[in-house]
Amino acid sequence: MTKFIRVLGSPGTGKTTYLYNKALKNSNTGLYVTYNVSMAKHAKEIFPYSYSVGTMHSICYNLIRNQLGFDNMDMLSKSDIMRWFRNNGIEGDFDIDADEGVSGYSIGSSILQEFDRYRHSYTELRRVEGYDGDIMSLFDDYIRFKGTKYDFTDFLIKTLINGLTPSYDYIYVDEAQDLTRLMWDIIDAWAQNAKEVYVAGDEYQLIYRIRGVGDDFVSRKYDETVVLDTSFRSKRNIYSIYNAISSMITDGIPRDIKVSDGGEVMNKSIYDSLRYMRSNMMTDKSIFYLARTRYSISGFDMRDIKGVADMMIDEGIPFKTINPRHSGFTPWTEDFIEYANNIIDMTNGGYITGSSLKKLIDRLPTEHKGMGLTVKRGVKTSIKKALSDSSLLDFSNIGKYFNGDINIHNLIVNGAFTDRQKNAFINYFGQSLRQDMKITEHLPTQDKINISIDTIHSAKGREADIVIIDTGITSKIKGTLMYGSDEEKNDEYRVWYVATSRAKDEIVFTNSHVLSLTIEPFMEHII
């Protein structure tokens, strides 16, 4: 008989640590599964290598590959879905993520969100505002169009239908409040082969109801419940913020949490917030900048994650994203950091490696006349065409320039180039760094970057010393806070509960642009 143990705790009370300690005590192998990829990435860093760690989607994907032998599953792409939109006269863009589901504010994104909720919750399809056709017929057409291609939900359904189960005596489920009915059915199926299943969560952080998440975490029967009542994260002044939000959630369970004294709550403009981040970058303080959405809303000066990222790039503030799948928002890859540091070395007359020089030359465009010549790609060709006299370099001994350390001035600045070409070469690479991105000194390696930006949803399960929360919201969210049902308001309050409870020492609320819709009227109730 499988034993189910619920681990209930507020943010920072050590739910993941509790699971980790139980895992080490129970067995040297087991399965750890969580809802989002950032939590799974963190768990892989701390759990023993012998443990299987992943999100629900990644675990199911691997089961399909390993037990059914499906190595090359054809995924339904965004362009496929956009073609289906056009076939059905549906307008609107969207983004899709295995963790966060469908994002966007178009009729098309709303339809996809409803399809996702329907498949995860086993409830009836609901009408989508703005679409006047028969929603069930549209769903059937989507399934026909999709054919043998997979979307993310297909991984879960195929796992359940085919009875694919991992063989572990102990299963540890983190962020369990976010499991949909479909996911709970999969956990129940996996539990049949297990001795104990630990499910950890916090009902106040249930923020994926739009994906079909219900009240299963609270309403299910457990053999045992463990309550964690001491926060090791937030100081008292931080706790008072998210505790005030939790008091507004009408269907929550009141708790008394022990916290230490201290903590600071501030309000700053977006520009002061950027300056504050700059003053704290490259320190031992971890910083999150969280926004409610990834998307801008046409007609409003909305600060979404992309907008924040662009401002930080302009200010030369290195940053990462919390969710690895959102890494496209940041240019601060290891390759770019190496590139920028080489440019800085070059302009300052420092040493760079021969392999780095090859990378710099390879970045020259196919055609660039700003240097008074046409530069073609390819190491030899680029160097030859960049030289006023190709005889200055002996290409039979080209290898000596591309091995070990060389002084860029000896090769380029002090002989190979004319002054005009030398300045053009340096300016071509360095101008955008100095002027556009304000990069004037060496950048740290990616693992030393202490600032991360992302959506509030992506920050679940994570923490930072300083959390900057952008208060810009959409008109739809503002309408929910003002006129929504109790359930709709509760769901939105939970999002801000998650945002504020990420902070250990400081919360900074950003003031809004003049044209932005903001959450400030709501914040007045809690600050």
Structure write-up:
- By secondary structure, the protein is of the alpha/beta class.
- It contains 20 helices and 20 strands.
- The protein has helices at 15-26, 37-46, 56-68, 78-87, 107-121, 135-146, 152-161, 181-191, 216-219, 236-248, 270-280, 305-314, 334-347, 354-362, 379-386, 408-413, 419-436, 475-483, 486-500, 520-523, and strands spanning 3-9, 31-34, 52-55, 95-97, 101-103, 170-173, 196-201, 224-228, 230-235, 258-260, 264-268, 287-291, 320-321, 351-353, 405-407, 451-455, 464-470, 472-473, 503-510, 517-518.
- The strands form six sheets. A six-stranded parallel sheet has the order 3-2-6-7-1-8. The chain has a six-stranded parallel sheet with strand order 11-19-17-12-16-13, covered by helices on one side. Strands 4-5 form a two-stranded antiparallel sheet.
- Strand 4 (95-97) and strand 5 form a beta hairpin.
- It is globular, with a radius of gyration of 27 Å.
- Mean pLDDT is 79; it is low at 296-302, 365-418 and 512-518.
What would the keywords be for this entry?
globular, 527 residues, 6-stranded parallel β-sheet, 20 helices, alpha/beta
Q: What form results from the Cα inertia axes?
A: globular
DSSP summary, beta strand count: 20
Distance between the termini: 49 Å
- Proportion of residues in extended strands: 15-25%
Q: Helical element count?
A: 20
Q: Please list the strands of the largest sheet in the order they lie side by side.
A: 3-2-6-7-1-8
List segments where confidence is low: pLDDT < 50 over at least 5 consecutive residues. 296-302, 365-418, 512-518
Output the structural class: alpha/beta
Bin the helical content.
40-55%
